[in-house]
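Hi C.,

You asked whether I'd gotten around to modeling the 126-residue construct. I have! Everything is below, sequence then structure, no commentary in between.
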Amino acid sequence: MRVARRAVVIVDPWFDLSIPSQAVGDRYERWMKALDRMTGMVHWDPIAAGEIAAACNGGSVTVRHLLQLTPMSNEAFEHYAGRAQAHRDSPVYKANAMDQELSAIRMAFQTTGITEAGALLVTVLK
């Protein structure tokens, strides 16, 4: 806000956890981020809209949730899950019960499906 002329726009992935396929999508995304962290990648957990708005004090805040329930295919699910293969012998992978979590997510996927994340769009006008 300090250096913006007129506004700040923040877009962050967002899941509507009240929709079963979105809840499974959120769980799967968190699993993939945990897998990426094992390889040194950095991922932050999503920030709630209220936290973003509170950090942008001094402006007019508008929050919109954009969601189009786009289903993930079984092929895409298995493709991304396959990234775990190289890490299955890792002590960190085993300690975090990553295979058990993936199995639970796979079962939920078969029941409800997975839909891709929507977006949280926060606009702060000066």
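If it helps when you're writing up: The radius of gyration is 17 Å.

Thanks,
B.
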